[in-house]
Amino acid sequence: MNRVLTCIMGAVVALAALGCQFSPTAPFSGFDDRGSRVVGHFESGSSGGGALSLPGQAATSAITAVEGIIVTTRERPSLTATVDGAGRFTLVGVPSGSFTLVFQLDGRTIGEISLRDVSTNQGIKIVVVLTVVGEVVLVSEERDRVSVSGECPRGPGFWCQNQSGNNPNLSREDFETFADEAAELLKDIDSLNTREEIAGAVCNTGNQFARHLASLALNLAAEMVEQGTTLIGEQTYGTVGEAFDAAVKHLSGANPLSGSQAEALKDVMDRINNAQNVEGCNQLPEDDPTDDDQPGPPPPPTQPPPSGQLTICHIPPGNYNARHTMTIGASAWPAHQGHCAQGVCDYQGSCR
After folding, report:
1. Is the pLDDT score of 55 beyond 50?
2. What are the residues facing 59 on neighbouring strands?
3. Which of 4, 59, 237, 272 could link 51 by a cystine bridge, Cβ 3.0 to 4.6 Å?
4. What CATH fold (topology level) applies to the domain 31-143?
């Protein structure tokens, strides 16, 4: 890439505030010598509202329910943290590359979350929720810094939190330069053809199509991705440019899409901005080259193990790409059978 983003290589981690009381500029002393860092926060309240209940326990409040949950990594079990009374936890020294967070309560696994392509000394903020059936589900993830080479596109959260110059990832001047170039790329869209409109769009969670299109334009302007870059596992769009052009034509009115087509294209841009389908970024392990992140037929159901627990592939409703393997009590299985996205529902066994 011809342009690289300046970044501070010292021990500063920027975490988005987002109502979780994280300081976006707070330094972590000694961070560079201790590996990557995960700071997590349980949202208050469940994903379905009301009281929470864990298998075998009475319904209780959100904070009471999550306090005492043990968080560790499958790859480094000796690294542990305990969720405190405010629903927060911190893991310092997590491995770079890909790893899985494991959430346990009373010796029982209640959720697993995989994080991929973690850089050395990278800070990650995650927000999770404990659902009414007692499972831990990832709500959002933000990473703290941009590497100086080999960069991959970044999501709307990155562009929203790094536009003011208050975080170490990007200066205000660089953001404004990229926003001006992004606005030029989107000049045919009246609502996205100024720097100010780009800045507002990437923070507007109420219009996800425009949010991801503005983010994609910023990624193109910053040369974090190119229009000719091949998309992996997408059936409708072969390159970043094809998806980008279709989105511009839709919002400009040149070639409007149907509601379902627009939703599908928004999901494609979401995957691009989160480097999930971009050639050269977030590639799958060599021993599983055929998984193109598209839904496929689930494996046949398995019988519950003698322990009364099940290993399942949980698919958050409406978000197939957030699927993850987890272990639940057998009694919780009926509630999971209604969790579906893109024609695939929760099924017994590990996610493919």
Report:
1. no
2. none
3. 59
4. Immunoglobulin-like (2.60.40)
